[in-house]
Amino acid sequence: MPVPSALGYANFIGDVSYSSQTLPSNFTAVCEQIESQFTALESVVYWPGSEDYALHTEHWSLASSLPAACSVAPASPEDVGAILRLVHATSTPFGVKGGGHNSLPGASGTAGVHIGMHKFNEVVYHEDTETAYIGSGLDWDHVYSALGEHDRLAVGGRAIGVGVGGLSLIGGFSWLTAERGLAVDNIIAYQLVLPNGDLTDVSADANPDLFWALKGGGNNFGIVTRFTVNVFEQGPVWGGLVAYPITEQELFIDALMTFNEARDVKAGILTGFHVDTSSSDGSFIFAILFYNGPTAPAGMFDKFLAMPALSNAVLPDRTFLSFLETYVLPKRAGQRMFAENINVKGYTPELIRHMFTEATADTLGAFSVTGIDAAILPIQDTGFKTKALDTAWPPHRQFMLLPAYLEAQFDDATHDSTVRSELQQLRESILQVALAEGQYPSDTTLRYEYLCSAGPAVTLDQIYGLSVARLRQVKLQVDPENIMGLAGGHKIVS
Ligand SMILES: Cc1cc2nc3c(=O)[nH]c(=O)nc-3n(C[C@H](O)[C@H](O)[C@H](O)COP(=O)(O)OP(=O)(O)OC[C@H]3O[C@@H](n4cnc5c(N)ncnc54)[C@H](O)[C@@H]3O)c2cc1C
Fold it and tell me: Per the database record, which ranges form the FAD-binding PCMH-type domain (predicted)?
């Protein structure tokens, strides 16, 4: 049966489905039916009140942890198929959770049937083809740990805890992107449960249109149970996190501009600042420095290393995983987090100064916002261009657009709409400066935002630009009844 839009949830506010917190009924009976239809021994239903339920419905941001009727953990693709058939037959909203890091409420949480993919957790290295099977329910650090036993690495997330499922379905910026492209450029096959519950293998040969659409199309085309990805030999790396006083903005900008001139594909950086709204003592600038080799050449990082630092965890000759462990990002248990991003060509000193000036306690502090993070993520475009596959996202590779990330941490759910609106205004003011500085494309058809932290007001056209028409065609073929529209997030409508 088609998914009725009159249900008032998980359908389309513009092109975006957003909140599912006001559902009319409970879906316990559907959960019981799912439980009775599971065939794999390890498939299980977790009920409200249990520790497992609490663990698996928890998301990185409290605002994304919705009160599901149950949390189901299928252990086979067939059981994923059974769930999809049942939620379709009963028009039950559902959420698919990988690592739970998406901060848009309803993108992977739900008030209906919560599907935890954590039992899809295999990592199988194929030495003959230099590829690996990676379960869609893993976090990237578990993948790196398993591949590390073979001195291998894959193109995946840059932080501990980020999920394979979500990141691989939206694009995927990695520490290896300057060398090897995006995560989507390194996926060579998908094991996919189609929206109608059937299991299929998707590759460039087997189903080229769907293969293209899965490269960036998010949770719109079914539920992926396994990715087959390229892997590479990986030796020791250099790097770690350095933190600086928030007052060192000009030295920081100067160091970043010097780094950007180096154009070394083995070098990476992830920087930004954190504002503590209650005390400037808790605010700081951070720079995560990375070089894909046991030591970094002199020059590009020198100014970062010479700046007065609060702490410095940079080390040579370390494993990739130990490098990631220097900056485990706090889950901030119990905190709501909203994020927005704006994709820019690059970062000028003026643009960064504007971010520092606008992302302050004065702008957001009044609304129970305890912290604001702004992240600046420059990446050299070599791998983005040379390793590019034909992908739904990004919709073109004429130039690389990088997310400038904004996040507000706050406590009070009654401030949700105010915080969202303040964050959107902050994004808009940064967008205007980026436009004036030539860092935001003036040709609207060449813009593309990143699904990673796209807010609820960001439309499909803004995310997918030139890919929208083809995405709608594939959607019509694969999911004519819009079964995936019962799950939240940014929805492609045929
Ligand atoms: C701390 C932090 C660090 C980050 N680092 C990076 C980074 O280095 N590079 C980068 O590109 N992005 C990064 N991100 C953004 C991140 O990639 C996105 O938030 C992504 O959606 C997270 O994936 P997940 O599986 O953890 O999230 P989830 O919230 O579990 O899922 C996100 C979306 O994917 C869907 N989904 C998940 N699994 C499946 C599946 N198997 N089949 C179908 N749909 C599925 C969900 O339904 C949901 O819509 C980071 C985010 C955070 C919070």
Answer: 64-234
16 pLDDT above the threshold of 90: no
The pTM of this model reads 0.94
In ligand 1, which atom is closest to the CA atom of 99? 26
Q: Provide residues with CB under 6 Å of ligand 1.
A: 60, 96-102, 107-108, 117, 136, 157-159, 162-163, 165-167, 169-173, 218-219, 223-224, 329, 452, 487, 489
Q: Is residue 97 part of a domain?
A: yes
Q: Could you read off the pLDDT of 258-311 as tens digits, one per residue?
A: 999 998 999 999 999 999 988 878 899 999 999 999 999 999 999 999 999 999
The atom number, within ligand 1, closest to the CA of 117 reads 41
Choose the final residue of a domain: 177, 206, 233.
Answer: 233
Shared domain for 201 and 277, answered yes or no, is no
Question: Pocket of ligand 1, candidates 61, 87, 191, 219: which has the most ligand atoms within 8 Å of its Cβ, to mutate?
Answer: 219
Choose one of 97, 200, 269, 343 to mutate for the ligand 1 pocket test, by most ligand atoms within 8 angstroms of C-beta.
97
SS (H, E, C) the chain: CCCCHHHCCCCCECCEECCCCCCCCCCHHHHHHHHHHCCCCCCEEECCCCHHHHHHHCCCCHHHCCCCCEEEECCCHHHHHHHHHHHHHHCCCEEEECCCCCCCCCCCCCCCEEEECCCCCCEEEECCCCEEEEECCCEHHHHHHHHHCCCEECCCCCCCCCEHHHHHHHCCCCCCHHHHCCHHHHEEEEEEECCCCCEEEEECCCCHHHHHHHCCCHHHCCEEEEEEEECEECCCEEEEEEEEECCCHHHHHHHHHHHHHHCCCCEEEEEEEEEECCCHHHCEEEEEEEECCCCCCCCCCHHHHHCCCCEECCEEEECHHHHHHHHCCCCCCCCEEEEEEEEECCCCHHHHHHHHHHCCHHHHHHHCEEEEEEEECCCCCHHHHHCCCCCCCCCCCCCCCEEEEEEEEECCHHHHHHHHHHHHHHHHHHHHHHHHCCCCCCCHHHCCCCHHHCCCCCCHHHHHHHHHHHHHHHHHHHCCCCHHHHECEECCCC
- Mean pLDDT is lowest, of 52-56, 115-119, 409-413, 441-445, for 409-413
Nearest ligand 1 atom to alpha carbon 339: 53
Tell me the per-residue pLDDT of 25-36, one tens digit each, with 9 for 90 and over: 579 999 999 999
CATH of the domain at 165: 3.30.465.10
